[in-house]
C-alpha cells in the first residue's frame, strides 16, 4: 500500500498469470537470454584476464621491472648506479647487464638476443636459475665462453648441452681480406624454459665479461636492471634513479618494453566483450517483443486505468517497471551463474576431458597445466550495468506506445 501506483501495478502484472501464454514464454526467453549473455561474458572475461595475468607473471619472472641504460653509449660507472639503486627502499634488487642482437649458428642458424649477466647477481632481478632444465647458471664463468639457451632456441639451432654454437654480432673487424663480422664460438652448458615463447625461442645468456670482451666495450655495460617491491612504480623509480645519476640516460619499464603485446591483449579482450554483448542485446530484443505483445494484450486495462485518472506518464511507468524487473532478474541470474561457472571452470574442464578422452589445453602448446581465471569485481559490475542499461532501453518504446493508447479506441470492441 505504500508503493507508488505505477510500481504496484507493474509488480502485479509481473506476478499475474496472463491470458496469452506465448507472452509469458517470450518474457521467460528474455530473462534466459540476458542471463546467458551475462554469464558467458563474465566467464569469458575472467578466462582472458587469467591468461593475461599468466603471461604477465611469466614474462616478469624473466624481465626487469625497470631499466636504466646508457644513451647511445655503454654505461661506464655501473657500480655506482647499482649501489644507488639498492639504497632506494622501493628497489628489491639491481644488477648490471650487457645485451646485443646476434646470429647464432649450430646445425641451423637463428637470430637471438644475447644477454650478458653476472650469475651471482642475476637472482636479484630474475628467476633464471629456477627455470633451468639442464645445466647450472654458475657455469657462466668469466673467460669460459659458455652459453645458456632457451629450450625452443636450442631446438631450432639443433644443439644440445655440450654442443658448440657460433655467435656472430653486427660488429666488424678489419682482416687482411677485408672487414668481417665478429664471431666467437660458445659452448652450450645449460637450457632454460621460461614458459614464454619470446624468451624460450629468442634469448640466450652468457657471462657479462665474455660479452664485454666480444663487444670491446671495456668495463661498460648496456645498463642496470631493477626489480621493485611494487612493479606499478617502475617508471617513477627508474626516472628518479636516472636523475640522481646525472647525464643522459634511457629509462624504460616493463609496460613500455612490452607495450605492443599488452595493447594487443587489451584489444582482444575488448573485442570479445563487444561480441559477447550481442547475446545480451538479443535478450533485450526479446524483451522488446514481449513488452509490445503485452501492451497489445492489455489495451482494455490501459484504457480503464486512463479513465480512472492515471496519466500517460504513469501508464508508461507501469510497463517500464515490469520490463526493468525482467532485466534485473535476468542480470542477477546471469551474475550468479557466471561467478559460479568461473569458480568451478577448471573442475568442469577436467570432467569434460575425462568424459571424452581429450586434452583441451595441451601443455606443450599453452605451457600451462590448468585453465587460469581471474574474476575481477570491476568486470562483473560493468557487465551487470550494461545488461541493466540494455533492459531499460528495451522497455522505452513499448512503454511509450502504451502511454499513447487512446482509451475510447481501446474500449470500442470490449
The general outline is: elongated
Structural domain tally? 2
Question: Which secondary-structure class do the elements indicate?
Answer: alpha+beta
- Report the biggest beta sheet as strand number plus sense, adding barrel if it closes: 6 strands, mixed, barrel
Q: Estimate percent helicity.
A: 55-70%
Distance between the termini: 30 Å
Question: Order of SSEs, N→C?
Answer: HHEHEEHEEHEEHEHEHEHHHHHHHH
Per DSSP E runs of 2 or more residues, the count of β-strands stands at 10
- Please report the number of helical segments: 16
* Gyration radius over CA: 32 Å
Domain MacB-like periplasmic core: 27-241
Keywords: Cell membrane, Lipoprotein, Membrane, Transmembrane, Transmembrane helix, Transport
Protein name: Lipoprotein releasing system transmembrane protein LolC/LolE
Pfam families: FtsX, MacB_PCD
Describe the structure.
This protein is an alpha+beta fold. It has two domains: 205 residues, no CATH class; 192 residues, no CATH class. The protein contains 16 helices and ten strands. A six-stranded mixed beta barrel has the order 2-3-8-5-7-6. A hairpin with a 2-residue loop joins strand 6 and strand 7. It is elongated. The two termini are 30 Å apart.
Amino acid at each position: 500500500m505504500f508503493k507508488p501506483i505505477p510500481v504496484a501495478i507493474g509488480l502485479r502484472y509481473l506476478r499475474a498469470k496472463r491470458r496469452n501464454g506465448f507472452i509469458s514464454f517470450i518474457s521467460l526467453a528474455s530473462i534466459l537470454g540476458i542471463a546467458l549473455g551475462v554469464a558467458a561474458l563474465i566467464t569469458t572475461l575472467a578466462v582472458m584476464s587469467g591468461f593475461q595475468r599468466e603471461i604477465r607473471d611469466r614474462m616478469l619472472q624473466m624481465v626487469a621491472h625497470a631499466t636504466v641504460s646508457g644513451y647511445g653509449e655503454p654505461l661506464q660507472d655501473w657500480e655506482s648506479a647499482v649501489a644507488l639503486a639498492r639504497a632506494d627502499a622501493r628497489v628489491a634488487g639491481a644488477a648490471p647487464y650487457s645485451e646485443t642482437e646476434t646470429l647464432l649458428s649450430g646445425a641451423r642458424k637463428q637470430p637471438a638476443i644475447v644477454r650478458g649477466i653476472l650469475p651471482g647477481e642475476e637472482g636479484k632481478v630474475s628467476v633464471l636459475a629456477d627455470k633451468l632444465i639442464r645445466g647450472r647458471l654458475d657455469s657462466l664463468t668469466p673467460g669460459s665462453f659458455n652459453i645458456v639457451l632457451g629450450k625452443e632456441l636450442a631446438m631450432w639451432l639443433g644443439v644440445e648441452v655440450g654442443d658448440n654454437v657460433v655467435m656472430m654480432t653486427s660488429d666488424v673487424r678489419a682482416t687482411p681480406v677485408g672487414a668481417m663480422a665478429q664471431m666467437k664460438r660458445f659452448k652450450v652448458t645449460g637450457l632454460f624454459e621460461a614458459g614464454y615463447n619470446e624468451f624460450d625461442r629468442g634469448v640466450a645468456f652468457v657471462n657479462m665479461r665474455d660479452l664485454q670482451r666480444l663487444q670491446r666495450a671495456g668495463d661498460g655495460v648496456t645498463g642496470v636492471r631493477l626489480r621493485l617491491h611494487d612493479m606499478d612504480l617502475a617508471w617513477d623509480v627508474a626516472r628518479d634513479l636516472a636523475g640522481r645519476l646525472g647525464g643522459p640516460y634511457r629509462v624504460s619499464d616493463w609496460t613500455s618494453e612490452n607495450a605492443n603485446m599488452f595493447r594487443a591483449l587489451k584489444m582482444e579482450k575488448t573485442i570479445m566483450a563487444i561480441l559477447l554483448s550481442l547475446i545480451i542485446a538479443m535478450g533485450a530484443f526479446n524483451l522488446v517483443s514481449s513488452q509490445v505483445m503485452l501492451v497489445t494484450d492489455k489495451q482494455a486495462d490501459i484504457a480503464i486505468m486512463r479513465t480512472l485518472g492515471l496519466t500517460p506518464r504513469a501508464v508508461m511507468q507501469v510497463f517500464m517497471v515490469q520490463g526493468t524487473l525482467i532485466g534485473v532478474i535476468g542480470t542477477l541470474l546471469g551474475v550468479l551463474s557466471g561467478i559460479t561457472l568461473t569458480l568451478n571452470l577448471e573442475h568442469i574442464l577436467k570432467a569434460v576431458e575425462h568424459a571424452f578422452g581429450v586434452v583441451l589445453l595441451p601443455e606443450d602448446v599453452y605451457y600451462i597445466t590448468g585453465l587460469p581465471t581471474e574474476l575481477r569485481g570491476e568486470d562483473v559490475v560493468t557487465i551487470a550495468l550494461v545488461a541493466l542499461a540494455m533492459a531499460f532501453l528495451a522497455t522505452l518504446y513499448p512503454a511509450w506506445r502504451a502511454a499513447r493508447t487512446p482509451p475510447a479506441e481501446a474500449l470500442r470492441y470490449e
